[in-house]
Amino acid sequence: MGALDEPDLCSGKGCRAAATHALLWNNPKIHTPERRKAWLACPDHLESLRSFLGSRGFIRDVVEHEKGADHAV
Fold first, then answer.
1. pLDDT value at residue 1
2. DSSP letter for each residue of 8-68
3. Cα separations (Å) of 55 from 23, 51, 67?
């Protein structure tokens, strides 16, 4: 299987599962309000990653992820 066939992977520590969602976030102390960074999540890590970012006030949106999509702005 070549690199083009490989799925985008979840951002969960050590996770090798295919990402199904993108968590869009920013740190208001260092990013402008319109800036978005993205973490990818598989179904198993979606809630834990959302909780981690949410508890810090960083989460801005959660969207479905399609392979190769660049969600960062």
1. 47
2. PBP-STT--SBP-EEEEE--TTTS-TT--EEEEE-TTTHHHHHHHHHHTT-EEEEEE--TT
3. 14, 6, 28
CA proximity to 24, closest of 59, 65, 64, 67: 59
Buried b (16+ CB within 10 A) or exposed e, 7-40: beebbbeebeeebbbbbbbbeeeeeeeeebbbbb
Domain limits, the chain: 3-64
pLDDT tens for residues 18-48?
999 999 999 999 999 999 999 999 999 999 9
Over its C-alpha atoms, the chain yields an Rg (Å, rounded) of 13
pTM of the model: 0.90
In percent, how much of the chain has pLDDT > 90?
89
